Automatic annotation (TrEMBL):
Cofactor note: Divalent metal ions. Mg(2+) is the most effective.
Cofactor(s) the protein requires to work: Mg(2+)
Alphabetized UniProt keyword annotations: Hydrolase, Magnesium, Metal-binding
Protein residues bound to Mg(2+): D13, D15, D212
Cellular component terms (Gene Ontology): cytoplasm
Hydrolase among keywords: yes
Protein's organism: Oscillochloris trichoides DG-6
One MF annotation (Gene Ontology) recorded for this entry: phosphatase activity
Name the record gives this protein: HAD family hydrolase
Domain of life: Bacteria
Length: 258
């Protein structure tokens, strides 16, 4: 494999790349310190909308990587940014946990439970999902609302297994309304790539996207024109490369390669 050159910006997935649950992964602390010390820009990216950006920044800081809120991008943030650009002031109904509701409220989006008033139903990773929420989404969709989503993940890996993720919520709403989700802002969406590129103020070809999932991290980076590094500390294995939508530029056992 060719040696990895230096980039102006480094974008890191979190779970499976920087840490695994509450366990920091080999090389992460030293690498981020070294990159910052040499003037490189760093951003952290997560598809998980169930924590706020502040919570991610706190977790990283606690693990030895001092992080500012502005260096973290997750899908509740990207969804709010997308709505601001494409549907300012729209009335929304998030099928989600509290952090997304808080971000929407803070950005001034009215939250409604009334069909006919709701312009966007936002499907998300929601461990508080109920039949009542599905009913509200169903009624709103039949009254003409659009379905959008924070992230396309089928499940979220947790120690010892996984939790059903946003794909299950999207599917439930699609199934009963015979509609399709029109926008999904999470990785591998170019919406997420554009948001991080803007945050770093760098063109995609000067960034390296680092992640553990071929179908989200690597696909997003490659599609956006970034070089990519697949680390084998999380979800994807070497054997998955044959069926991957995009091949990574580099592959390594862990972050110590950088
Ligand atoms: Mg990951």
């Amino acid at each position: 494999m060719q040696p990895i050159p230096t980039y102006a910006g480094y974008i890191f997935d979190l779970d499976g790349t920087i840490y695994l649950g509450d366990q920091i992964l080999p090389g992460a602390v030293d690498l981020i310190a070294h990159l910052r010390h040499s003037g490189r820009k760093v951003a952290f990216l997560s598809n998980n909308p169930t924590k706020t950006r502040a919570q991610y920044a706190e977790k990283l800081t606690r693990m030895g990587i001092p992080t500012r809120i502005e260096e973290v991008i997750n899908t509740s943030y990207v969804m709010v940014e997308w709505l601001k650009a494409n549907a300012p002031g729209a009335s929304v109904y998030p099928v989600s946990e509290q952090p997304l509701i808080d971000e929407l409220t803070a950005a001034g989006f009215p939250i409604s439970e009334r069909a006919g008033e709701i312009q966007y139903v936002i499907a998300s990773f929601d461990r508080t999902f109920t039949y009542r929420k599905l009913q509200i989404a169903f009624d709103a969709m039949r009254a003409g609302a659009q379905l959008v989503a924070t992230n396309p993940d089928r499940f979220c890996p947790v120690p010892g297994g996984g939790e059903p993720d946003a794909a299950a919520i999207i599917a439930a709403i699609e199934a009963c309304t015979n509609t399709r989700c029109s926008v999904n802002v999470g990785k591998p969406s170019p919406i997420m790539a554009r948001t991080v590129s803007t945050l770093l103020n760098l063109p995609p070809n000067r960034c390296l996207m680092v992640g553990d999932r071929l179908h989200t991290d690597i696909a997003m980076g490659a599609e956006a024109g970034m070089d990519t590094l697949l680390v084998l500390t999380g979800d994807s294995r070497r054997s998955d490369l044959a069926t991957a939508p995009y091949q990574p530029t580099y592959i390594a056992e862990d972050l110590r390669i950088l």
